[in-house]
């Protein structure tokens, strides 16, 4: 697409941002739908995040995605927050409104839910407790998504127990959350309906997640938010014992949809072609 004076421009703010898949992903949609727009990397070091975010309306940008390490800073700097961002405490999508104010959204929980819907259409949230391994930013979004889906119990397992306790407290009183000590992680899998890895373990170059699956019910769905490699050691182990598995790539693809729609005015689709195209760039 050749740009014009009317091109809508969005991008992704991160530091570093060179590894981001978002320009390729949004670029595919812009081309596929013939939209007069651009989606560019916006490398912003941590000490420049405030002026960078404030500059969005001044530059006439449509908005941006926000990635590591800026999601919490963006949460503090925008003018208004959507309910998901409020609950997760982080912003991954900023939309510049017609009056120049900044709306902060979080689409990670949406992306996680949509990926699970695509990859495991038969998963019933009521089937059993959901086990979430990890307590970082990604775990927050996953926990919110699962509570919204109506799981009967959320079991949080994290190497550093205090972080899991903090996440449980932030999710609020009256929600069915239990923190399981790391030493007992294998027993947390008994009667589970879903297992999610939100840690970096299993990523290319990292050791596999140390979690024996022997106690996991055979029908439990296993998913990983890591997508390099697509089949992580955890998913491989789960697949070999017959559990349904869902890889993490779809979460990346689906979390991008609401931003694209807000900036460029068209609801994009996650298709096998898009998956292939993004995979080729990994
Ligand atoms: P993100 O925000 O992307 O989720 P993060 O905040 O760095 O990333 O969180 C990484 C998660 O991976 C944490 O839950 C971390 O556990 P700790 O809270 O104990 O640090 C988990 N993690 C990282 N390395 C790990 C390891 N070797 N074994 C188990 N968990 C690990």
Write the layout of secondary structure elements.
Blueprint: E1 8-14, H1 22-32, E2 37-43, H2 49-58, E3 63-66, H3 71-77, E4 80-81, H4 83-88, E5 93-96, E6 102-105, H5 108-119, E7 130-133, H6 137-149, E8 154-157, H7 161-170, E9 177-180, E10 194-197, E11 221-224, H8 233-240, E12 245-246, H9 249-255, H10 257-264, H11 272-280
Parallel strand pairs: 1-2, 1-3, 4-6, 7-8, 7-10, 8-9, 10-11, 11-12
Antiparallel strand pairs: 3-5, 5-6
Helix pairs in contact: 5-6, 5-9
Bound molecules: 2'-monophosphoadenosine-5'-diphosphate.
2'-monophosphoadenosine-5'-diphosphate is lined by residues 134-139, 158-160, 163, 198-201.
Domain Shikimate dehydrogenase substrate binding N-terminal: 12-94
GO molecular function: shikimate 3-dehydrogenase (NADP+) activity
Binding site for NADP(+): 134-138, 158-163, 225, 248
Task: Looking at this protein, list some descriptive labels.
alpha/beta, 2 domains, globular, single chain, Shikimate_DH, Rossmann fold, oxidoreductase, 282 residues, six-stranded mixed beta sheet, six-stranded parallel beta sheet, NADP, shikimate 3-dehydrogenase (NADP+) activity, binds 2'-monophosphoadenosine-5'-diphosphate
């Amino acid at each position: 697409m050749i740009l014009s004076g009317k091109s809508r421009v969005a991008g992704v703010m991160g530091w570093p941002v060179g590894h981001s898949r978002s320009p390729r992903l949004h670029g595919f949609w812009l081309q596929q739908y013939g939209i007069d727009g651009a989606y560019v990397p916006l490398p912003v070091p941590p000490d420049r995040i405030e002026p960078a975010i404030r500059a969005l309306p001044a530059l006439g940008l449509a908005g941006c995605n926000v990635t590591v390490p800026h999601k919490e800073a963006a949460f503090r700097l925008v003018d208004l927050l959507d309910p998901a961002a409020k609950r997760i405490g982080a912003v991954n999508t900023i939309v510049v409104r017609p009056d120049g104010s900044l709306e902060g959204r979080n689409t990670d929980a949406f992306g996680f839910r949509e990926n699970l819907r695509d990859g495991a259409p038969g998963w019933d949230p009521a089937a059993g407790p959901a086990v979430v391994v990890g307590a970082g930013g990604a775990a927050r979004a996953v926990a919110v998504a699962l509570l919204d889906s109506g799981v009967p119990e959320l079991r949080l397992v994290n190497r550093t127990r205090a972080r899991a306790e903090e996440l449980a407290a932030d999710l609020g009183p009256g929600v069915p959350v239990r923190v399981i000590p790391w030493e007992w992680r294998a027993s947390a899998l008994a009667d589970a309906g879903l297992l999610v890895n939100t840690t970096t373990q299993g990523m290319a170059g990292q050791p596999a997640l140390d979690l024996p699956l022997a106690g996991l019910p055979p029908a439990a769905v296993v998913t990983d938010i890591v997508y390099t490699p697509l089949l992580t050691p955890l998913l491989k182990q789960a697949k070999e014992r017959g559990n349904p598995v869902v890889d993490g790539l779809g979460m990346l693809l689906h979390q991008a949809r609401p931003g694209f729609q807000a900036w460029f005015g068209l609801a994009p689709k996650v298709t096998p072609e898009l998956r292939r195209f993004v995979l080729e760039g990994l």
